[in-house]
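For anyone still unconvinced, we reproduce a single protein record, the chain in one-letter code, the fold tokenised, and leave readers to judge:
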Amino acid sequence: MSFGRFERSPGPRPMSEINMTPLIDVMLVLLVIFIITAPLLASSIRLDLPKTDAARAGDAPKSVLVVVDKSGQAFLSDRPLDLAELATQLLQVATTSPDTEVQLRADAAVPYGRIVAVMGAAQKAGLNRIGFVADVPPRATARPQP
């Protein structure tokens, strides 16, 4: 047996550029994730605002109560009024006392556009202090103390 020299072939040369295929794959996966989740974020918000633990009657020096029932009918001092009549009544209140607070009590099922219309009528009359009245949510039955 002889101990000779074996010739070696040169090994693979190192790559000198970045392989873009994995980076493009990751970018496309992220793009698909954003396309799927973006509409879900905008339409998944569910609100039920009329109940809060902090709901208490305000201690305004002078206030007027405007009620909007489930059908969208506005009431001022328990009298049903359409939007034009409500605006004139609120204008009369604003001329006698411009710092009067409007306490708006609206049903949870009233469309937001109707609430905005009532608020707009109050602001056009010059009554800029508007408060929303909410009910306290029912509490669970209290456990007796041992």
Summary: The two ends are 97 Å apart (CA to CA). Confidence is low (pLDDT under 50) at residues 43-47.
